[in-house]
């Protein structure tokens, strides 16, 4: 935890200093974390070049590390406002121009859509944890509606991905860490315009793939 906090504060300073290079800074930081924390990342499938919204299950802070390390495009994470409110550490949101939302304020949806459109036009890929909070890693929690609203309003191409093993690598709740492997499994991209039940079917497909991955992991 100490190592993680120190390196995050360092890259925050670097991202403010080099605002046009925040993506390579985060990517380098991700590779550094795999070395310092002693884990490796195994990718299954491919990140689609058409994706404009990436949705993932969430179990650990290492989820973000893994995606920042291997994802080929500049991600824009949509995060809850509570993270930005953390002293010093909260600058991890504005420094690389991520998006923060206040789930208690309905006007925050308008802000998310407006800023999401701006980031996509800049060539970035939006990234969300539709569960809204960290789970145990053994099953998907119920999805919140934010990802569905964002995808349909902005007509995004959605690619779901499953992360397996991140909580074993770093469990921030119990301050427990181990070496090992994280799997990032890409599923087929989805065009929400093709099926009005796409969101529910995506949850079912991700749940099934997670169960299969855990059975063999």
From TrEMBL:
Recorded topology in the membrane: Peripheral membrane protein
GO MF annotation, one: 1-acylglycerol-3-phosphate O-acyltransferase activity
Main location: membrane
Keyword check for Transmembrane helix: no
InterPro entries, A to Z: AGP_acyltrans, Plipid/glycerol_acylTrfase
Entries under SMART domains matching the protein: PlsC (SM00563)
Coiled coil: none
Residues in Phospholipid/glycerol acyltransferase domain copies: 52-166
Keyword ATP-binding in annotation: no
Pathway: Phospholipid metabolism; CDP-diacylglycerol biosynthesis; CDP-diacylglycerol from sn-glycerol 3-phosphate: step 2/3; Lipid metabolism
Reactions catalysed according to its record: a 1-acyl-sn-glycero-3-phosphate + an acyl-CoA = a 1,2-diacyl-sn-glycero-3-phosphate + CoA
One Pfam family matching this protein: Acyltransferase
CDD domains: LPLAT_AGPAT-like
EC number(s) given by UniProt: 2.3.1.51
Location in or out of the cell: Cell inner membrane
CC per GO annotation: plasma membrane
GO biological process, one term: phosphatidic acid biosynthetic process
Listed NCBIfam families: AGP_acyltrn
Description of its domains: The HXXXXD motif is essential for acyltransferase activity and may constitute the binding site for the phosphate moiety of the glycerol-3-phosphate.
Function: Converts lysophosphatidic acid (LPA) into phosphatidic acid by incorporating acyl moiety at the 2 position.
Family per record: Belongs to the 1-acyl-sn-glycerol-3-phosphate acyltransferase family.
Protein's recorded name: 1-acyl-sn-glycerol-3-phosphate acyltransferase
């Amino acid at each position: 935890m100490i190592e993680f906090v120190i390196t995050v504060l360092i890259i925050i300073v670097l991202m403010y200093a080099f605002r046009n290079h925040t993506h390579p800074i985060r990517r380098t930081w991700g590779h550094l974390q795999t070395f310092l924390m002693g884990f490796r990342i195994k990718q299954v499938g491919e990140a689609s070049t058409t994706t404009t919204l990436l949705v993932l299950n969430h179990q650990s802070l290492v989820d973000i590390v893994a995606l920042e390390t291997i994802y080929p495009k500049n991600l824009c994470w949509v995060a809850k406002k509570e993270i930005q409110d953390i002293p010093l550490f909260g600058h991890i949101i504005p420094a690389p121009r991520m998006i923060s939302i206040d789930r208690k304020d309905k006007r925050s949806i308008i802000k998310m859509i407006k800023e999401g459109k701006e980031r996509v036009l800049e060539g970035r890929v939006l990234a969300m944890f539709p569960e809204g909070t960290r789970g145990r890693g053994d099953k998907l929690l119920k999805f919140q509606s934010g990802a569905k609203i964002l995808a349909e309003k902005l007509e995004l191409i959605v690619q779901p991905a499953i992360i397996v093993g991140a909580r074993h690598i770093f469990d921030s709740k119990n301050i427990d860490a181990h070496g090992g492997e994280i799997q990032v499994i890409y599923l087929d991209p989805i065009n929400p315009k093709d099926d009005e039940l796409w969101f529910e079917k995506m949850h079912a497909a991700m749940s099934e793939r997670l169960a299969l991955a855990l059975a063999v992991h």
